[in-house]
Design brief:
The protein is mainly alpha-helical and 85 residues long. It contains five helices and no strands. It has one domain.
Length: 85
């Protein structure tokens, strides 16, 4: 998807964030996006925050990063703390 205007606006740039980070943009769109980033500190900051949010979300769901066993004392404390209904 190439924007209709070669001068990419901030609003246009936001539409390309995911594709840019995944390397899925066409070369001309990537060039326009990077040219915009070269002159727009706000979009650079937004891109960094967006990338960090994606990274943190992936880490939160990374089952390989979880410990193999939950200590019995922790499990018991969680079960004891839950509301009884």
């Amino acid at each position: 998807m190439v924007p209709p205007d070669p001068d990419l606006s901030c609003r246009d740039a936001i539409e390309f964030l995911a594709g840019y980070l995944d390397g899925e943009l066409a070369p001309e769109t990537t060039g326009a996006f990077e040219a915009h980033l070269a002159i727009c500190a706000d979009c650079v900051d937004y891109l960094a925050g967006y990338a960090q949010a994606i990274r943190l979300a992936r880490e939160a769901h990374d089952v390989d990063a979880l410990p193999g066993e939950v200590p019995e004392t922790l499990l018991r404390a969680i079960l004891d703390a839950r509301p009884r209904g």
